[in-house]
Design brief:
6% strand; 66% helix; two-stranded antiparallel ribbon; fatty acid elongase activity; transferase
Length: 328
């Protein structure tokens, strides 16, 4: 048993020291995965246990101005990361088919590696999405999808930066930063208040955009299993499986949030029509039982006239009228 544990420790150190990218080993949080893991676990504990417990007997905070500033920051940060992904590679020579990692220390290669590290840091800034939900007591927004997505991403991106900071796998960050520009722009507009929120009809399409993103990432990653490309296939599988998991999580969220909401809306409309029909029928019944004159016969309130008609075969102008009246 001791030799087995010793072998695991040696294998871990060999992986971290000899098989990782030596360019990033001294960068902040990159020497070991454990600080990032600890931060992610602390995040989950705070937003699911500690935060709601602290806020249980407190009023929600009014964070409108904070949210405006935060979302504006995220739009700017995501825009810069997207620009770096475009100008550093994906719109400047990168191949969608196969793009190996450039492990050199050229300015171009170091720019891409640095961009990957900043993308990793951005995953921690997104923790504030959930922290603000806790402080505003928006507990229903702290869904399983939300916590899993934010809790896993920093750890996943850490491995990417540690071993493959550049090349094929950065396609995910390229798409993801664009999606975040759209998403945080929506949140920024929503934070401006009701006068703007009434025009924000496109929220559900952000979820659709995110699902499209995961499909593209899956296809882009798994294609490398069918071609000859000098890129670690293990990372293609890692990224592809993340894309599959997140696709189904977001799809489930979409069904719960929007399909069920649409069903509730239709049910409410049907109930409204049913109530209107019932009111109309009640009004008609009230008029029928009120005091009226039908074909010249007076009917007192509370009496029901079952039938009344004019006999067309009556001779001359003296039309005979029959009426059958019951009293209540």
């Amino acid at each position: 048993m001791a030799s087995y544990v010793s072998g695991l420790i040696e294998g871990y150190h060999d992986l971290m020291d000899n098989k990782s990218d030596q360019r990033v080993k001294d960068w902040f949080l990159m020497s070991s995965p454990f600080p990032t893991l600890a931060i992610c676990l602390t995040y989950v504990y705070c937003v699911k246990v500690l935060g709601p417990r602290i806020m249980a007997n407190r009023k929600p905070f009014d964070l409108r101005n904070v949210l405006i500033a935060y979302n504006a920051f995220q739009v700017i940060f995501s825009s810069w990361l997207f620009y770096e992904a475009c100008d550093g590679g994906w719109l400047n020579g990168y191949s969608l088919r196969c793009e190996p990692v450039d492990y050199s220390t050229t300015p171009e290669a170091m720019r891409v590696a640095s961009g990957c590290w900043w993308y990793f840091i951005s995953k921690f800034t997104e923790f504030f999405d959930t922290i603000f939900f806790v402080l505003r007591k928006k507990d229903k927004h702290i869904s399983k999808l939300h916590v899993i997505h934010h809790g896993i991403m920093p750890m996943s991106v850490w491995f990417g930066v540690k071993f493959t900071p550049g090349g094929h796998s950065t396609f995910f960050g390229f798409l993801n930063t664009f999606v975040h520009i759209v998403m945080y722009s929506y949140y920024l507009l929503a934070a401006l208040g009701p006068q703007v929120q009434k025009y924000l009809w496109w929220k559900k399409y952000i979820t659709v955009l995110q699902m499209v993103q995961f499909v593209l990432v899956f296809v882009h990653a798994f294609q490398l299993f069918f071609i000859d490309c000098d890129y670690p296939k293990a990372f293609c599988g890692w990224i592809g499986m993340h894309a599959v998991m997140f696709y189904f999580l977001f799809s489930d969220y979409y069904k719960q949030e929007y399909n069920k909401k649409e069903a509730r809306r239709k049910a409410a409309e049907e109930k409204k029509l049913s109530d209107a029909a019932a009111i109309k029928a009640a009004d008609a019944a009230a008029k029928l039982t009120a005091g009226t004159t039908a074909n010249g016969l007076y009917q007192d309130p509370g009496k029901l006239m079952q039938a009344s008609y004019v006999d067309p075969n009556a001779p001359g102008d003296a039309l005979r009228q029959r009426a059958f009246v019951t009293t209540s």
